[in-house]
Description:
By secondary structure, this protein is mostly helical. The protein is built from six helices and no strands. α2 packs antiparallel against α4.
Amino acid sequence: MSDFEALTAAILKFRDERDWRQFHSLRNLITSLNLEAAELLELTQWKSDAEVESLPADPLAGEALRDECADILLYLLLIADKAGIDLVAAAQDKLVKNARKYPVEKAYGSRAKYDQLG
């Protein structure tokens, strides 16, 4: 069993023990993931790049960063389960697509979007 499969099994067990499946429509899960992403973003609000880079080293801020990342991952696993998506396969497929859109010889060191590469 992969780490993703084990985490998915754990979050589904957690959800089912609380009878929360009834609230987990695909729309609600996607909305919740975005709300958690906003909470992650909030950790950076009004901070300089240096302050953001130092978040992991601070015990309280580092814990908040880990918690928000975990919340996002857990919602993503619930979305993938609901939609029947194999996240590992989807990520591998996306890397192949991105490699075609961003060939090294054009994209190396560039922040340009694929349709703006020379």
